[in-house]
């Protein structure tokens, strides 16, 4: 049994006590009010035994990553989330015991569980596997583990999108970015900020900001990036999916449905990419997390709030038939 803690970037700033709270992006709150705050036990030096062997990576963690700011770039997966018009509705339910057909309960079974009817593996924040368009390239479970951590570049075209909601990023936008910030590093991830996701889940999935074929080709062929990503659920509006089709049929992955790119600087952060391994999967539900320098204004820092044990909420999680998922209201 697992649960995940969905914290968004605005949390860190919200509450003076340092406890993450109100989430402007509409996700779950970590807290309404901290109910029972566990005291963090003072670290005691071990009475016996030598300290664990350290490494340069552990020193790097202590020096750097323990103080970095973690920014969530993924949407919460929920049934009222928009999907591409060709796919069916998503349904969440309470998992039921196969013998009785009754939902599990904390009282009788000690635990509860959820059931999901997902009509597609192409939904929410994702990493498209090339097998989505070409069976000879990698499926979800075949994407290498080395995708886990990369340099993150953010190219902002939101001003152009304000003037034209279907604006397609072109090579000139990338060259302009490079004039200001320098050459895009090889093997990095490049996310395109359009602010399309600002009104999520109320978004237009038929007309949206695009990434032009020439731009994705330039990023891969001239700059050798690992993958690019964008806020909408598709790369472009052409009838034959020109940009997306070129990428996936040439063995490149791409990120879709990313958000909070206004909370990430153009250069200097890393991107952590974590996703489940579905056998033969064509898309991946992904948690993208930007790991930004300690002086960056957004994001959460490890140890700045209770993490283990996690704090209790005032309101219990309950099945909400109106929403169609478990919530605290
Ligand atoms: C999922 O679909 C199956 C088959 O149609 C149905 O029996 C089940 O109740 C559905 N579960 C949810 C959570 O919607
Ligand atoms: C908006 O941008 C798209 C993509 O570049 C283009 O096809 C369209 O003509 C533009 N619309 C306007 C009104 O300029
Ligand atoms: C990208 O690389 C190709 C092949 O080397 C080159 O012909 C082209 O001019 C480059 N594009 C740009 C915009 O620099």
TrEMBL record:
GO MF term (any one): arylformamidase activity
Signal peptide stretch: 1-18
Region (Disordered), start-end ranges: 25-54
Matching InterPro entries: KFase/CYL, KFase_sf
Any one of the GO BP annotations: L-tryptophan catabolic process to kynurenine
Keyword set, alphabetical order: Signal
Source superkingdom: Eukaryota
Pfam families membership: Cyclase (PF04199)
Similarity comment text for this entry: Belongs to the Cyclase 1 superfamily.
Name this polypeptide is given: Cyclase family protein
Protein's organism: Linderina pennispora
Species classification: Eukaryota, Fungi, Fungi incertae sedis, Zoopagomycota, Kickxellomycotina
């Amino acid at each position: 049994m697992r649960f995940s803690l969905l914290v968004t970037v605005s949390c860190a700033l919200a509450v003076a006590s340092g406890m993450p709270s109100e989430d402007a992006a509409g996700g779950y709150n970590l807290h309404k009010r901290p109910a029972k705050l566990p005291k963090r036990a003072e670290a005691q030096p071990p009475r016996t035994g030598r300290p664990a062997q350290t490494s340069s990576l552990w020193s790097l963690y202590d020096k750097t990553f323990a103080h970095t700011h973690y920014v969530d770039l993924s949407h919460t997966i929920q049934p009222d989330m928009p999907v591409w018009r060709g796919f069916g509705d998503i349904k969440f339910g309470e998992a039921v015991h196969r013998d009785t057909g009754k939902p599990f309960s904390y009282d009788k079974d000690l635990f509860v569980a959820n059931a999901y009817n997902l009509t597609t593996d192409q939904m929410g924040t994702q990493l498209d596997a090339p097998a989505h368009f070409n069976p000879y390239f990698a499926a979800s479970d075949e994407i290498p583990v080395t995708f886990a951590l990369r340099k993150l570049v953010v190219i902002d075209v939101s001003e152009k999108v304000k003037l034209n909601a279907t604006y397609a990023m072109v090579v000139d936008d990338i060259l302009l970015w490079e004039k200001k910030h320098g050459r895009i590093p090889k093997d990095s991830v490049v996310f395109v900020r359009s602010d399309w996701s600002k009104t999520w889940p109320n978004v237009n999935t038929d007309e949206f900001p695009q990434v032009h074929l020439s731009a994705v080709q330039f990023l891969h062929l001239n700059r050798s990036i690992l993958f690019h990503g964008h806020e909408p659920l598709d790369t472009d509006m052409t009838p034959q999916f020109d940009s997306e089709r070129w990428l996936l049929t040439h063995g490149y992955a791409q990120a879709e449905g990313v958000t909070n790119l206004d909370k990430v600087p153009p250069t200097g952060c890393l991107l952590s990419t974590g996703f489940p391994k579905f056998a033969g999967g064509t898309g991946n539900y992904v948690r993208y997390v930007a790991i930004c320098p300690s002086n960056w204004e957004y994001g959460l820092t490890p140890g700045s709030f209770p993490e283990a044990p996690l704090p209790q909420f005032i309101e219990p999680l309950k099945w909400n038939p109106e929403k169609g998922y478990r919530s605290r209201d």
